[in-house]
Design goal:
135 residues, alpha+beta, five-stranded mixed beta sheet, 27% helix, 14% strand
């Protein structure tokens, strides 16, 4: 932490957060048949409960042509270490879900390196990328 950075209260200790898009394209069984969309969220929720990271869903993150989209947000410690949000596209299979959960459990951006296969799915966030989450 630089001498000019001051963090107060809970902001000092926020855990890594995984934001799961569930808008018009992500999580849509008609557009992505054969993908267990609910199972993905349940797997992430179970891992979050076990390992102490947060899981949130949102209506739309924007890059619909790369659905399903997830964003792994750094913890407070990860942000202080230089970690930034990692946007992951085409996150529709069990392997990707498992790797996201493992990375978040290990601390996420700024704390732990992402799995190499997961890095191949990193995408550029849209201009003005949104990560407003709902429970």
């Amino acid at each position: 932490m630089s001498p000019r950075t001051i963090t107060f209260g809970a902001a000092r200790d926020l855990p890594c957060t995984v934001v799961v898009c569930r808008g018009c394209c992500c999580g849509n069984a008609r557009k992505h048949p054969g993908t267990d969309h609910e199972g993905q969220v349940e797997h992430l929720r179970a891992a979050a409960a076990e390992h102490g990271f947060r899981i949130r869903t949102t209506d739309c993150l924007g890059p619909c042509d790369q659905a399903n989209v997830l964003v792994v947000m750094p913890s407070s410690a990860g942000r202080r270490a230089g970690g930034r949000a990692a946007w992951i596209g085409f996150a529709a299979d069990e392997d990707c879900t498992r790797e996201v959960a493992q990375w978040a459990a290990a601390g996420g951006p700024g704390v732990a390196r992402p799995p190499a296969a997961l890095e191949l799915q990193f995408i550029r966030p849209p201009r003005g990328g949104r990560t407003r989450a709902r429970r």
